[in-house]
Specification:
single chain; about 650 residues; alpha/beta; seven-stranded mixed β-sheet; elongated
């Protein structure tokens, strides 16, 4: 029964997350950051709560009036923060519930994870208690309903026998000390929630407690919009204990039990709460996990290292490595981005659940796996694309640079030439990229377009993105002499050392790293046959065509095919028309024995790579570098790149 429910939830999550990946990109998919989002929402609730408490009157006569003053007299601050406090609390509960259900669905709650599961359940109930307690403080008619209903329910417990409800039977029963107690309870429970959140993540290696900055911006904007257009107000005036509450609007995120308490005998609701809590608490021991082959623990070894790492039952390769301090590559930790792809050289793994586009069946059958999803069934040895970096990790340097030159290459493409302010060149490999660092810490990734042999300047090809923060600045405001900072070099989309003929597929400004790789190969005298297929939407999108034509004349081993996908009659385009990867497959229906390098948008790469593999290309001979033009409305980002991967 448990497995059946899990399979249904898995299918639902995978379908929804695929849609979110298509819209937000895998790095900004909120389902991959539920825990971190919950942490962030807690800080919003705590920060807004501190402000509200500073103006809150902890007395019978003062509570309602102080909340009204906050809401109405200083609506621009107290009123907005009251609404944000409420909506962030609701979102906090929602993300916690989704986080819990997702871990149950993907079977990440038993074994060594049982500790986090149990502390998560405790956290959820504490948040509910804090929410109910918080709704008592405004002392309006909703607060009256919450207090009376909650106290009636609690009085069913042995030893209380009606002592709580007697405190709220008459107006004279309530005093200032009672309200002070409620306020201090709210603060104390909130601090306990924070403590338990810290405990909750202690057994999660490299746990993230802050979501990506674009998600933070999106959440803040959403909360602010809700606060402005649906402000939270007190209900039906101040509490009046002499009159029963007939009708109120409930917060169904934080007060879902109150309607049940009102309509059912208290013992039934207590049975439901205790029974469901016990059932959830013992779930880790009810779920039977598959027995691994062999006896005793299994171990993970990285090719190039003699170190063996013990892997706990149900633990992914990524979690095992991070727990032991290895600098493994990862991003989403949920099988959505492909950053953590590896090759299983020896042993067997359970691949787990992941988005199919990240690891096609052909790649999986050839030995590829995702560290964040794969769990070992036997001792395993894996190979990473950059083992040297793993075994001796080094932080990429941060450099200051100035703009040496700016040259429009096409209506929406600008060539930037940068030089470091200290006059030192930055050593890099052809095909790598740098991250431009913005003032608020955000990053914009652009590939080197020059070969390493000409590293006195850094050449970037910047394509204008409508609404893009950095690219808009480049085209509208940047001038020669401006300063900026960048980190790098980064990435491993570089030419391999082999004798295989080379096919290159570039989309739009995906030409930049390809240019770097080709010029480096020409300067080094590489004689391997090379074909470049460059695809754009319209002929005007091609730039530096004269240079490419010169390569074709000067190097007998180089061949070039330009492809336009959406020409119009006025273009008078006489060349090839269609999708660039399909044009290449027309010329090369069998890719066995070739190496293929593809660079462009994620959509292009995701569409092309499975077809390449289906036409005989070996997964080990396919190299990709994909970028996502992010929606400016969400983050203002131009390019969010992911490290190159062998699909």
């Amino acid at each position: 029964m448990i497995a059946l429910v899990q399979r249904a939830l898995q299918a639902a999550f995978m379908a929804v997350e695929a849609r979110f990946n298509a819209f937000f990109g895998d790095r900004l998919n909120p389902f991959y950051h539920l825990g971190a989002i919950s942490f962030f929402l807690f800080w919003i609730v705590a920060g807004s709560g501190v402000y509200l408490y500073a103006f809150f009157g902890t007395g019978v006569a003062d509570a309602y009036l102080s909340v009204q003053a906050l809401t109405n007299r200083q609506w621009y601050a107290g009123g907005v923060l009251r609404s944000i406090h409420r909506y962030a609390s609701d979102a906090f509960v929602l993300t916690m519930l989704l986080h819990l259900v997702r871990h149950f669905a993907f079977d990440r709650f038993s074994g060594f994870r049982a500790f986090s599961w149990l502390t998560g359940l405790m956290l959820l109930w504490l948040v509910y208690v804090a929410g109910v307690n918080g709704y008592m403080l405004p002392w309006d008619r909703l607060a009256q309903f919450v207090i009376v209903t909650s106290f009636e329910w609690l009085d069913w417990l042995p030893g209380l026998g009606g002592t709580l409800i007697r405190n709220v039977m008459y107006p004279s029963s309530i005093n200032d000390r009672f309200f002070s107690l409620l306020a201090f309870m709210h603060i104390g429970i909130s601090l306990l929630v924070l403590l338990l959140m810290w405990v909750h993540v202690q057994r999660v290696p490299k746990a993230k407690t802050a979501p990506p900055r674009p998600i933070i911006v999106g959440l803040l904007l959403a909360l602010l919009v809700l606060a402005m257009f649906a402000p939270v107000v007190s209900q039906q005036g101040p509490a009046a204990l002499e009159r029963a509450v007939a009708n109120v609007d409930l917060d169904w995120f934080l007060l879902p039990l109150l309607p049940l308490i009102e309509r059912l005998p208290a013992r039934y609701v207590w049975t439901l709460v205790i029974g469901s809590s016990v059932l959830l608490a013992v779930l880790p021991w009810l779920r039977r996990r598959p027995v691994r082959a062999g006896a005793g623990p299994v171990h993970l070894r990285i090719a190039g290292s003699t170190r063996k790492i013990a892997v706990r039952p149900g633990e992914t390769l990524l979690d095992a490595g991070l727990r032991e301090g290895l600098a493994l590559p990862f991003e989403c930790r949920n099988g959505g981005c492909g950053v953590c792809v590896c090759t299983v050289l020896d042993g067997r793994v359970d691949h787990g659940l992941y988005q199919e586009r990240v690891l096609p069946a052909a790649a999986r059958n050839s030995g590829r796996a995702l560290l964040c999803c794969a769990t070992p069934l036997t001792d395993v040895e894996i190979e990473l694309d950059d083992t040297a970096t793993l075994l001796a990790p080094a932080a990429s340097g941060v450099h200051s640079a100035r703009v040496e030159a700016m040259e429009p290459l096409a209506p929406d493409v600008m060539r930037l030439l940068l030089a470091t302010t200290d006059g030192q060149s930055v050593p890099f490999k052809a095909g790598q990229y740098i991250n431009i660092l913005l003032d608020d810490g955000q990053r914009r990734a652009f590939s080197f377009a020059n070969p390493p042999q000409r590293a006195d300047v850094i050449e970037l090809h910047v394509r204008r993105i409508v609404g893009g923060r950095f690219t808009g600045h480049v085209f509208d405001q940047m001038k020669v002499g401006d300063s900026l900072r960048f980190e790098g070099p980064l990435g491993s989309f570089t030419l391999s050392e082999s004798d295989a003929p080379i096919l290159m597929v570039a989309g739009a400004t995906g030409f930049a790293p390809v240019k770097s790789i080709l010029e480096d190969a020409f300067l080094r005298g590489v004689q391997r046959p090379m074909w470049l297929y460059w695809g754009v939407r319209q002929p005007a999108d091609f730039y530096l065509l004269d240079i490419v034509r010169d390569w074709e004349r000067q190097h007998a081993n180089f061949h070039f095919s330009p492809v336009v996908s959406e020409p119009v009659a006025a273009d008078q385009w006489a060349g090839r028309i269609g999708l660039v990867h399909e044009a290449m497959l027309t010329d090369f229906p069998s890719l066995a024995g070739y190496e293929l390098y593809v660079c462009g948008s994620v959509r292009m790469v995701d569409a092309a790579v499975p077809e390449f593999l289906a036409h005989g290309l070996s997964a080990d001979a396919c190299f990709s570098d994909a970028f996502v033009p992010a929606r400016a409305a969400l983050s203002g980002a131009e390019h969010v790149t992911r490290p190159p991967a062998h699909p």
